[in-house]
Amino acid sequence: MSTRRASKLPPPLDTALTRSPSLSAIEVDTSSKQFTRALASVVDATAMTHIVTSQEQTYVDTVATMRQNSHTLERFNETSAIRYTQSVAVLTNHTHMLKDMKADLDIVFRRIRALKAKVATQYPKEYEGVAKARAIEEEELDVE
Length: 144
What we know:
Elements: H1 2-8, H2 16-19, H3 25-42, H4 45-122, H5 124-143
Helix pairs in contact: 4-5
């Protein structure tokens, strides 16, 4: 029974790493190989095969997902670049239109001021009466 028990236990680990602070590369390599062998002997081979297969499948799935995401992001960036170019063109057009409208409004208000001045000089009494009536009207609107 004791031999049966001893066969199930993993082989003893080499403690060469803890014995000497100055180890050569060969000793470290040997120790790491022994540790790996000891660890591998603890885990069943079919379980290890299943774990490795599962990790490989996970890796394949992850790479496929990353490629798909990369492709999707590339298409998004291309679409965004096209939309940005179109938006810049529209914005530039609107900016020019607003500048033209401002220039037109400046001309209109300048003409209105010139007409008011002309009416005020030609018809001072009537213009003063209309100006007073308009001031009263604006005060009433402000009160409301």
